[in-house]
Design goal:
This protein is 73% helix and 2% strand. The protein is mainly α. A hairpin with a 3-residue loop joins β1 and β2. The longest helix is centred in the C-terminal third of the chain and has 34 residues. The relative contact order is 0.21. The model has no long low-confidence stretch (mean pLDDT 90).
């Protein structure tokens, strides 16, 4: 007897849609990376989004600093720990694994891409893509995936919830990074796309790995 199968983190109706989104997002990261490669100034697209850079006066600067804190090591660690605890209370261990793995791989991907792209800001600081934006987007994606599964949403509603949550979280953190002049706007866009590329793939791998391990135990 193998017992009840643990619920997956990637709700079945979302698989095809988020798989396509992940592929397109990976392509977008590459395209923006090529356009930004070796640059040390805003590009054309940054110029279109540039007004956001000037919303840094009080009280907005304090709002931006507060958002930025949750992407810094102490704030990010606190968010992850609380989120993992919530997942365990809800008896969703796979979601807890995905939170750590998805956020970690998304941020790790930005760290790998930064020296490859070589875009700089403020005299040599590597900027593309934004790790803060990738982190916030990754957490939102996992939370929305968990909510979609628990609510039993269909493909359209579930995909809308997941992408909507990613957009809100990514836009909020991306705005903070641009408002604080820590990143160019397209750095934030690149971080958002990085999370969209990484998290669905990590969710699929998490489910696949857990099912294989569970199947192996069941045959003993």
């Amino acid at each position: 007897m193998t017992g009840r199968r643990a619920p997956g983190v990637l709700h079945p109706p979302l698989r095809a849609g988020l798989g396509a989104v992940a592929v397109l997002a990976a392509l977008a990261v590459a395209v923006f990376g090529v356009l930004a490669a070796g640059e040390s100034r805003p590009g054309t697209v940054d110029g279109w989004l540039r007004p956001a850079e000037h919303v840094a006066g009080q009280p907005w600067r304090n709002v931006a600093l507060a958002a930025d804190f949750w992407g810094e090591p102490v704030g990010a660690a606190a968010l992850v720990l609380v989120s993992v605890a919530v997942c365990l209370v809800l008896r969703r261990p796979r979601a807890a694994v995905l939170l750590v793995a998805g956020a970690g791989i998304a941020v790790g991907a930005t760290m790998v891409l930064k020296p490859l792209v070589g875009r700089t800001i403020h005299g040599g600081h590597l900027s593309y893509p934004s790790g803060h934006t990738a982190f916030a987007t990754a957490l939102a994606l996992v939370a929305a995936m968990l909510a979609t599964g628990r609510l039993g949403l269909g493909r359209a509603a579930g995909t809308s919830l997941v992408l909507g949550a990613a957009l809100v979280a990514g836009a909020a953190m991306g705005w903070a990074q641009v408002a604080l002049d820590a990143h160019y706007p397209t750095d934030a866009v690149g971080g958002w796309f990085t999370a969209l590329a990484v998290v669905p793939a990590t969710a699929w791998l998490t489910d696949r790995s857990a099912d294989i391990v569970r199947g192996g135990r069941g045959r003993r």
